[in-house]
TrEMBL record:
<dbReference type="Pfam" id="PF12697">
    <property type="entry name" value="Abhydrolase_6"/>
</dbReference>
<feature type="domain" description="AB hydrolase-1">
    <location>
        <begin position="37"/>
        <end position="306"/>
    </location>
</feature>
<dbReference type="InterPro" id="IPR029058">
    <property type="entry name" value="AB_hydrolase_fold"/>
</dbReference>
<dbReference type="InterPro" id="IPR000073">
    <property type="entry name" value="AB_hydrolase_1"/>
</dbReference>
<dbReference type="InterPro" id="IPR005152">
    <property type="entry name" value="Lipase_secreted"/>
</dbReference>
<dbReference type="GO" id="GO:0004806">
    <property type="term" value="F:triacylglycerol lipase activity"/>
</dbReference>
<protein>
    <recommendedName>
        <fullName>AB hydrolase-1 domain-containing protein</fullName>
    </recommendedName>
</protein>
<dbReference type="GO" id="GO:0016042">
    <property type="term" value="P:lipid catabolic process"/>
</dbReference>
Amino acid sequence: MGTYLWSAELSASAYILWPYTTKKIKGVPDGEAPTVLWTHGTSGWYPTAAPSTHRSLFYQDFVTYALALAGYAVVAPDYAGLGVGTSWDRTTIPHQYGIYQAGGADALNALNALRAALAAFPERLTTDYVNVGHSQGGAVGWGVSELLAEKKEGFEDLVRGHLGTLLFAPLTDAFSLPATSITTWVGKYLNQVYPEFKLSDWLTPLGIDRVTLFNQVEGSQSVSSFLFTPENEIVQPDWMNTWSVAALKQIVNPGERPWKGPMLVIHGEKDPAVRYNASLATSRATCEKYPRDLEFLGVPGVSHFPGMYATRSI
């Protein structure tokens, strides 16, 4: 069960990818696999977009297969609204894309998935674990570290087992996304967080109609790119001046809060999807406010996904 921002308990799916042969680590009994909590990047916004529904688990040998082949067990939440799309009362479960602060649905679901996996397979998974995340999942992973720091009383067992966090290209500034992305991907569910929010505050009538169609067809990222252009026909010109933007900025981004380390952030300097300078700035600001063991590695000439390949030998 996961918890949404407005405190409703909702079901969320996950999977475990098992290694054929476990990695040998000193002090770990034979047969126990070292555990990795994997928080995935943007796969979509609807139940059919869950990584567990993909033959390649969405990330194939970028991360998930590579970890399993190296002997690790990968515990991977789909996030609420992906995989399981309907609640017990038959209401739709939206994917709360972009709520990354501690206590956000995805961070909670990640920890709940890990706890469920450890309870189900106590003799096959180590209680010590590392969180690895990319892009959207990098932001979720950062939220996990904040949740472990701020709500220790609810996750004492997982606090003890947390060895550290590895984040690739974490999305730490949602408002650095194109306006057509945040206004549609976040705007389509925001009235469930702020009931007074109206989608017309952000989108034109055409934009609202396109969101309706997007929901009906459960569109993918490519469908999003097709439907939500050009920006001047989709987005209201003064959307950034609305009260909802100011409110959302208080909860949308990870960083600059208490967090549990150690943490390594790896980001390609040529990333076109998630701004390198944004995650660097968040890392610096977080360390200034809450000094911990955080290292930032910039990778010259590398973009959004290849950063995971380029640094594998580190």
